[in-house]
Amino acid sequence: MSLVLPPLPGRAAALVPVLPLVAVPVLLALPPSGDGAGPADVMSALVVGYCAVRLVRARRRPLSPLAAVVLGLPVVGLALAAMGAASPEAALGGLCRYLQVFVLVPAAVLVLLRHRADFRVLAWSFVGLALWQGAVGVHQYVTATGASYRGETVRAVGTFGAQDVMGMATAVSLGLVCAAGIALGRGPVRQRAAAAGCAVLLVLPLALSFSRGAWIATALTCAVQLALAGLRRALKAVAAVAAAGVVLVGGFGVGTAMLQERAGSITAVTDAPDQSVTDRYALWASATGMWRDHPLTGVGLKNFPEYRDGHAPLALSSGSDVEGAGETYHRQSLLSPHSMYLLVLSEQGLIGLLTLAGSWLALLVCAVRALLRVRRRGPGADCALVACGLLLWQLTDFVYGDIGGPSTVLTGLALGLAAWWALASDARTDAPRRVAAPGRAEEAVTR
User: Parallel, antiparallel, or unpaired for β 327-332 and 433-437?
Assistant: First the structure.
């Protein structure tokens, strides 16, 4: 006797495909579990498996030819670089990580999202994660329980800890970009007001992250979103940001000398750089030196640490200080050049950079073209602004940072949202059509 489960209510059934994707940001709200894959990474692997099972059962082509080419392009450079890895373990580990972030997770998002309502649910999960991590970060700053910065444990790092000081900055920045895109769209007034309020709230933890790269990427992205949204919305947003700045500086005392010094260092990096900037320049010089010696295929996946000292100038320090947020003081080795473009160039060579950056550029062109069509003819401006904003933020942040740590899985989800908007044939539909079938009702996916 077989057990027959009752059908889910309409709204609950409509959310089933997107819930595994939402579970990834939810699990990122948990503290890290130590070395190895965290809960969010494991969930991302399960999402890819779930997506594959759905495709097999539905017996349909997973991606359009254009989507397959754009998302599959990085595999060429990765395969060549994996052959140059120092060991099979390093090759497999690096290959799996790159495929997870830049191919498999974006493809799973592209397949599982069916319409703009699903897109918005996932975008709001980014905002929810940012609010939670931001709240933890502000508490760390106020109670001096964060990561160490200039001898004081005041750096907001959220639940990611001092080992991943960029984790909270990434989560908060992506959430702020999502909130800004929704607020600048043409959705319901309540939704836009709530998103605008969230964006303003997230300015504080972003400032307390002391991440100059995240500040630059977020400021540039929001400025582009404002320009694309129109003059009237731009003026309202600028007024809201100005008011938030007054509250932060005057009400919360965020304009501390430490924060002002950090902000001022953005424009003074060539005059009197601090040690972190000096190390970054040294790592960049090391990466370019590797590329000059191995121009086409690089030094191999995961091989940057092995070749670093042979190409680095003497100004490079032995590592960075890690302390606070539950960590005892220790030195952390500098294992990457802190620039995604230079990391790819050094380890995968020119072929790897052209294939990976070519995939991102194709996504950006397709996403902007879809945004311009929506601006002229139809709804969906909020999804367009979120998708283009996430992609632009990632491409800007990759100048100053690279993948690594639990927050990396957010990069895959962000690229997936951008890919869905840019490449999905149903990216401008609000909901799937319902068609009657003998004995049951099904949702037709117009992909």
Answer: unpaired
340 and 398 Cβ atoms separated by less than 8 Å = yes
The burial class, CB within 10 Å (0-12 / 13-18 / 19+), for 267 is exposed
- For the entire predicted model, the pTM comes to 0.88
Which pLDDT value is given to residue 342?
Answer: 95
CB 340 within 8 A of CB 401: yes
CB 283 within 8 A of CB 338: yes
The residues near 232 (Cβ < 8 Å, ≥ 6 apart) are: none
Does residue 3 come out as left (phi exceeding 0), alpha (psi in the -120 to 50 range) or beta? beta
The first and second tokens of residue 397, run together, are 């942040």
Write the burial class of residue 190 (CB in 10 Å: 0-12 exposed, 13-18 middle, 19+ buried): exposed
CA distance 343 to 214: 18
Residue 254's alpha-carbon distances to 137, 142, 203, in angstroms, are 13, 10, 11
Q: What is the 3-state secondary structure (H, E, C) of 258-287?
A: HHHHHHHCCCCCCCCCCHHHHHHHHHHHHH
The domains of the chain are located at 17-28+37-271+333-428
Amino acid of residue 269:
V
Phi and psi dihedrals of 365, rounded to 5? -65, -45
Say how many Å lie between the first and final Cα of the chain, rounded: 37
Instruction: With a cut of 50, list the residues of the chain below it in pLDDT.
Output: 1-5, 8, 432-447
- The answer to whether 47 and 26 are in contact (CB under 8 A) is no
Taking the C-alpha atoms of residue 437 and residue 446, their distance in angstroms, rounded to an integer, is 16
CA atoms within 13 A on the CB side of 147: 25
What is the reported pLDDT for 443? 39
